[in-house]
Amino acid sequence: MGNILGVQLRGFVEKMKKQVTSYWPNKSGFKDKKGDEFRIKSNELRVSAHTWNVGGELPSEDLDIRDWLDVDYPADIYVFGFQEIIPLEVGYVIGSEDTRPIPIWENIIRKTLNNIQPVNTILESDHSDTTEVALCTSNDSSTTDSKESVEDHVDSFTNFKSQYVKIVSKQMIGIFITIWVHRSLRKHIQNVDVSTVGVGKKGFIGNKGSVSVSMSIYQTNFCFLCTHLTSGERDIDIAKRNVDVQEIYKRTCFNSMSKDALPKSIMDHERILWLGDLNYRLNLSYEETCDLISKNAWPKLLESDQLKLGGAFDGWAEGVLNFPPTYKYEPNSDIYYGKDPKVGRRTPAWCDRILSYGKGIRQLSYKRAEIRFSDHRPVSASYLMEVKAFPLRKTTMRPYI
Fold it and tell me: Which pLDDT score is estimated for 155?
């Protein structure tokens, strides 16, 4: 009887080992200093990214952004990047920063997110978590002298019923990024750090540039950037945009005071999303572009080489642009600016873009929303992103199940 039980037990153990091996590939294992082996569990989180140049307009408290957020498909992480959140006038750029729009936009986002039907994060849900403890450190590499405390990055909103909470918000003149996550995911986010780079007037003023956020989600490093690049259709403007991107690469710095092996630059991260008004344009006239739009002929054009982003974004990925140009519209209308040549003309352009970099990223959607609040249309993209999580320790005494 003992031999039979022993054989059955060994068979059970071997079966469990096969199941474990099939779920966590061997290449994901490693050993600690004691020689104990761990396995890295891989899974996916849904990330929803949003970019919008709001043209310096102050929103009403009841602005409806549900179409932009695609609330029918709830995400685990929401990233919002705004440009021209304040007017880019000399007084706003050189003087003290105007923060009045920030609480309004945050309230609109909070209200919209927390009206979404309840959803659990893919990896884990822990509804006993009812506090919002800071898990972040702050290193603002802004070109200005101001520094932010850790508390500036933490949401003080303590409505325990809300299912989404703010992880970080940061403004640099007209550029603003804010990141929200499902409450049960918040405790798995660490090492939050912010870096700002101004590339505008005189090469460093923040009317143009980037605000970037670095964070660890489980054991995977993420970077989210919101940018506003140089505008214009001349060759010199195109060259300046590429210089903008190179400066952002070079001057963005995270975790400079940390001795841990944390990402220091943008490209040190495993998953990266770049959101913003990139101001890239077709080399076509107003009449030529409008003719393509009227014939719904832009998709074929976009497959050509005419809309490449340039060498600064080599290696980055972007979904198919299957929507019309997002800029420039007359106020509160669907008419592109310039139909009446007396008021001036701006060639319609796909300025508003979302790009990704890294392995383990699968794009699900890429679209614009029809909200007529600004002279730009807001754009969104959703992704499934792979994350690594360390589960319980696997010892030599028994298989990890």
Answer: 43
Name 41's bridge partners: 389
Dihedral through CA 374, CA 169, CA 317, CA 313, nearest 10?
Answer: 90
> What pTM was computed for the model?
0.79
Question: By C-alpha distance, which of 270, 296, 352 is closest to 319?
Answer: 352
- What mean pLDDT comes out for the span 248-252? 96
Asked if 219 and 270 touch (Cβ cutoff 8 Å), the reply is no
Token pair 């700002």 is found at: 196
Q: What is the dihedral of CA 73, 76, 77, 78, to 10 degrees?
A: 30
- Residue range 204-225, pLDDT digits in tens: 677 899 999 999 999 999 999 9
Secondary structure letter of residue 155 according to DSSP: -
Q: What pLDDT is attached to residue 12?
A: 45
Helix (H), strand (E) at residue 293: helix 286-294
pLDDT at position 93 over 70: no
Angstrom distance (rounded) from CA 290 to CA 311: 27
Q: Residue 230 is which amino acid?
A: T
Binned at pLDDT 50, 70 and 90, residue 11 comes out as low
Backbone angles phi, psi at 220, to 5 degrees: -125, 135
Mean pLDDT of the chain: 77
Q: DSSP 3-state assignment of 337?
A: coil
Taken as a whole, the chain contains a residue count of: 401
